[in-house]
Amino acid sequence: MDNVHTHGHEAADVRYSAAAAVSEGNATVTVVSAPICCIECRRAWVDGGERWRIKLLVEDSESEAVPYCPDCHDREFGDS
């Protein structure tokens, strides 16, 4: 702790404290991510029962997985 800048204050005690620990039963984890959107119409996928398709777009040496909603997939690739 010699390299910690305290700006004139006493350094904080950073040892483990069982009283400050959160039990796993009370812990909440929230994962936030951007919604999956159709590459063509930009509609977000919100219905988990709807079948979307992922196509692999390959340009030069780069590849990217791109999502299609059912309507745009049928229009672009036919009903398959």
3D architecture notes:
By secondary structure, the protein is an alpha+beta fold. It has a domain of 43 residues. Helices cover 10% and strands 18% of the residues. It has a two-stranded antiparallel ribbon. The protein is elongated, with a radius of gyration of 25 Å. The model has no long low-confidence stretch (mean pLDDT 81).
Task: Write a brief caption for the model.
By secondary structure, the protein is α+β, with helices and mostly antiparallel strands. The protein has one helix and two strands.
Multimerization state: single chain
Gross morphology is: elongated
How many strands, what sense, and barrel or not for the largest sheet? 2 strands, antiparallel
Contiguous low-pLDDT stretches (5 residues minimum) are none
Query: In which range does the helix fraction lie?
Result: 10-25%
Please report the number of helical segments. 1
The string of secondary-structure elements, in order, is: EEH
Strand order of the largest sheet: 1-2
Q: Give the number of DSSP strands.
A: 2
Strand content: 15-25%
Keywords:
alpha+beta; two-stranded antiparallel ribbon; 1 helix; elongated
Question: How are the SSEs ordered, and which strands pair?
Answer:
Layout: E1 53-59, E2 62-68, H1 70-77
Antiparallel strand pairs: 1-2
